[in-house]
Amino acid sequence: MEKKYYVEMRGVNKSFGSFQASKDIHFGIEKGKLIGLLGPSGSGKTTILRMLAGLETEDSGDILIDGNIVNHIPASKRGIGFVFQNYALFRYLTVYENIAFGLRVQKWPKAKIKARAEEMLQLVGLEETAKRYPNQLSGGQRQRIAFARALAPEPQLLLLDEPFAAVDAKVRQELRSWLREMITRVGVTSIFVTHDQDEAIEVADEIIVTNQGRIEQIGSPKEIYRNPQTPFVAQFIGQSAEVDNFRQFTGFTNAESNAERAIVRPEYITVAKQGEFLKYSLDAEEGVVEQTAFRGNEIELKIRLKGNLLTARRLLDDAPVEVGEHVRVFISRVYAFDEQKAYVIENAALNTQESLVI
Amino acid sequence: MKTQNKGGAVKWLLVAVSAFFLIVMLILPLVYVLITAFREGIQPFLAAVTDPYALKSIQLTLEATVFAVIINTIFGLFAAWSITKFQFRGKKVISTLIDLPLTVSPIIAGLIYVLTFGRQSFLYPYLKAAGISIIYAVPGIVLATIFVTFPFISREIIPVLTAAGTDEEEAAALMGANGWTIFRRVTFPHIKWALLYGIVLCTARAMGEFGAVSVLSGHLRGKTNTMPLYIELLYQGYDFTGAFAMSAILVVMAVCILILRNVFEYRGKKNEE
User: Fold this and answer.
1) Domain with B2 in it
2) By C-alpha distance, which of B262, B245, B158, B157 is closest to B204?
3) Are B177 and B86 in the same domain?
4) Fewest beta carbons within 10 Å, which of A208, B79, B216, B245?
């Protein structure tokens, strides 16, 4: 049975001069979902968002909202809430007037405008800023107000362009969970653009990965993370080290697939000092630590293994490892890829009981 | 700021040179204009400025200025808006053309209009049939004034609009606002002070315009003489008191405008913070 999508793009193309920003974009989004459009800068994610909003016109293809083609409906009539990257709050209007703007434009009755604006201020917890101007707010407060302003006219679809890019790291962390919670509470279908994979994985129900104007993969964060389907996704997601021939590693020698190159992520590498307990001891190989770096909650290691430099992690409480030390390394999974596809390949040891040494 | 404190001698030398230059080039002549205007007492001054021809020239100058400012404000807003908010072919050409009056000598501007609307023009028979006279008449003076002053307003607004970007307008449009509402509530507050500043500059230039107006006016005393033209006429006729009396009025108007200009500039800067 075909799924019922609330927002859909069918074969959408868009060029700016000779630059093709969107190539044959197809996707569908179910009502009430929070979607992350993830990709490196210049990958065409913002163009997709702006076309949905009606701020850019597609060259070909159809955009559907709630089952209707909206190609020729101007931005002002699409009833979409939009949060801009730099918030685009009206500088010469107070916070209250910013939020009320859309309602006044849509000729809501006075009493309802007041009630709604106050409700939104309360929702974002910034009642006390009503009379202030945007330049008197902190970055995080501005973001909340932009969110409140976009939601005030009760849009059915909320679009957010890099909503966390303009705030500092600490506030960003806070805002992420805040936004997630708000959107769940309001229940509005939302799409946000980000270049930060952690952000997308943490916040989104579903992720659309874009690269060079194309959609690479659509799936839940878990799927994207665990089963990358294209070489790009395998490399882009996670903290990856690339190896030219993964069959040189023990446990991958007989791997099926034609691919040779692979991505190895730190979370699939276990590092043990000599003499330390290692579950799959027989399949571990010896590597040399080249670099150690303190990352706050963990130690990041660069390990040379058969000529490849891999990134691995050890917990802060684990016995310290030194540069030049010979350690035992076990790789449990790699993402092998050829030109078109990516394949998940597990260490053969995981499927054979015999190699388990206790 | 340390580097500036170190060169104390250089600093004062530069200040002294600039001050000397300003005094010789500007303040002295301006003071001299005022002194000469009142040399023979207040009576001849009043007589000179209340002369019917003088009054007529003041009136004509104000008229031309008001027309030029109104028309250029509208044109300047449209031009600045279209150049900064839209992408289109020929945008560079338009923004370059806007600057043309700044580089072309005003006298050529005058001649262009004489050619376009004068007797030798193909338009002349139609204009005559419609009973419109442009050359050697008030409309010609207004046209010439508009021509020489039209870059002033758009030039002031364009940088402000460029700096402001289009995000706020887009945000307003997405909420369903129409063009007028967007302009009134979002764009206008941004450009308010720059616009006033441009209007002031435009006014100052319009009042003082001599070259282009001189070509088109025909120097009909009491009909097509603006203040600068009338001053020249008096001066040529060795009526120094009259010439300087009128000049004094023009100078005072210019100083008022200068003060206004500084007020607007200050407010504009404060507004940006």
Assistant:
1) 1-37
2) B262
3) yes
4) B79
